[in-house]
# Entry
Amino acid sequence: MYFKKIIICFIASICMTYGNHKDSNINNDSNLQDKIDKFKQRYNTSINISIERMEKVKDSIQEVYERENKHTLKLEQNSIENLQIGVNDAKNQKEKEVALQKLNNSEYKTQLFLGLQIGSTFTAVLDNINVLPTINLKIGFQNFLGIASKNIGLKIYFDSFLASNVLSSLKNNPFVDFVDSSFSSTNINAEVMYEMPISSFLRFGFGGGFGVGYMTYKDAYWDKLNGFASNISLLFYFSFKDTHKLEIVAKTFFYHYGSYVTRKLDNVVQNPNNLYSSDFTQPINLSIGWVYVF
# Structure
């Protein structure tokens, strides 16, 4: 009986020890999990903040990249000519080929040109009408406005007219007084052109313009009339391979302000007339010439 009580006490002691050990393990596991949860919570917050910052940086970089692509011109990809004719704006290969062809044809380029024209200038003071052989030199730039239209162009140029009847003196009787009549004008002009193709190498164009400059004139009535003048012009031309142009031009001059001196010839003295600059009829020049486009 006594032995039986000892065994029961031993078993009870073992159970209590095991129970206390188990409770201790449970407590330890619970503390470890709490530490793990706190660790995760702490570092997850830092990681999330870092990720958010990286996302913001990424968005900022993307925004800058898109803005640069939109507003920045890369010289190696966007030449002035390409931007002007829209090569980079072409939606397909065919449009790009057409744009490049126009570039090769110099249709939209700003080009220097030189011109030489000959013709006649018609002048008159009262009933004294002169038809003066004329030579005209011009230099300037032309540009076909590829952004606005395929056929509309603009020219800005200087020209200089020189007209005289001095060659007529060679046919005159040397014993008869020869009255030299001459006209000259130097101007800066602007003209708008419209050009249409006729064939692969030939085009027809026409246009009109306005100019201002300085003009001089003398004849039987004037010792000299000079001053500020304006002009309007009308032209027709044929263009060969975009390089050579055959032009027909009409230009009228309007005398505005300057000085003049009358020459008292016999017919003026006997029939006194008050000659004013308004008696000087607007000169008209008709000429034909050749223009070379570089």
Remarks:
- Residues 2-71 form the longest helix (70 residues).
